[in-house]
Amino acid sequence: MRNLPFSLVLIAVMLLLDFYVFSVLKGVSQGAAQRTRSILFAVYWTLSAMALVALLFMPAINASGLPKGLRNALFVTMVGLFFAKLVAAIFFLIDDIRRGFQWVAGRLFFTNTEAEQIQSNGGISRSVFLSWLGLAAGGALFTSLMYGMGNKYAYRVHRVKLRFPNLPLAFRGLRVVQLSDIHSGSFTDHDAVARGVQKVLDLKPDLILFTGDLVNNTSDEMDRFLELFGRLKAPMGVFSTLGNHDYGDYVQWPTADAKRANLERLKSMHAQMGWRLLMNEHVLLERGTDRIAVLGIENWGAKARFPKYGKMSEAYPGTESVPFKILMSHDPSHWDAEVRPRYGDIDLTLAGHTHGMQFGVELPGFRWSPVQYVYKQWAGLYEEGAQKLYVNRGFGFLGYPGRVGILPEISLLEFE
């Protein structure tokens, strides 16, 4: 009930958008046959009404026994329609501002007779170009969001070759798979996830590193997938860290003890799967007489709202004389904020966290996502001097149950 006033405000905003967009739709469809317009208007208002009803009853829908996939589809349809109309409305507003300026100019620079003549001829008409452009932009956004729901398990292997002059000879040719942001609480298709796990195994990595966010909020989200991810094995081991979602910070717990118990259970799940969870510590990996260090810290985010549980002061000591170091740190903002300024001999940092916002464009020579306006490093490989950072796009998904342009990632890092 506490959310009811907010829901009512949102419904009012959606209704205003509905009527604003509909006024433009009526204008651009004037040349169509009456039957075509009637069908178009009926479809428009049916979808709008469904979105409003879904918003009003969303708490009841979430608490119902409806399959998660159906609930996700309803949520995406509702949100997609809202943002599609919002994007379209931006174009219409630009046009209305143009018309307003023209009206003011007409009053200032034309005689009353000329201004009345313009008004009698229908006033200052809308730009057909901007009207269609707005409708096309909104329609494209809605279509892409609906289409993206089919991509949430479309795992892509990103093969990245890395060269480090100080990498010990015995480790040249090392094949490392990085996974990040599994978010098991979002999964609805066990078989599809299993195909992703098999893709990892088919790569035959020497080492597997997981950089946090095993769950969305609570440890029980992992119950169905414990055996599945326990299949991940590698000759040199599987090592993991925690992400910001693993601590249960976004849940209202009945007691502090309940929250601590949830985290301890989650940590024990890493062990049950055969993963070595690194909590502000490091391990030394050996091949013959050569050694490298793998450091893993708890979540450390430079952005104000994310916690700083990680302690490099605990993970780093003991690695000073090791010639090559890999750091697992969930949040890529840690690299610029602490790693590069204070730990210049960390050769490679592995992170995740951003998901590439699960929305963007990736073409040869061009990448864009809204998340880049928040995170300087948000997907792929970055280099500063001798240090490198790789940001995994995420294995799972959170919030929006889909992927548009930024597909779920399995990183294969090949050391040369």
TrEMBL record:
Cross-referenced Gene3D superfamilies: 3.60.21.10
Stated name of the protein: Metallophosphoesterase
PANTHER family with a match to the protein in the record: PHOSPHODIESTERASE YAEI, TRANSMEMBRANE PROTEIN WITH METALLOPHOSPHOESTERASE DOMAIN-RELATED
Matches recorded under CDD domains: MPP_YkuE_C (cd07385)
Keyword Hydrolase: yes
Protein's GO biological process: lipid A biosynthetic process
Species this protein is from: Flaviaesturariibacter aridisoli
Ranges that cross the membrane: 39-61, 73-94, 129-149
Record InterPro entries: Calcineurin-like_PHP, Metallo-depent_PP-like, Metallophosphoesterase_sf
Pfam families: Metallophos
Keyword list, A-Z: Hydrolase, Membrane, Metal-binding, Transmembrane, Transmembrane helix
Keyword Metal-binding part of the UniProt annotation: yes
MF terms in GO: metal ion binding; UDP-2,3-diacylglucosamine hydrolase activity
Segments forming domain Calcineurin-like phosphoesterase: 174-356
Cellular component aspect of the GO annotation: membrane
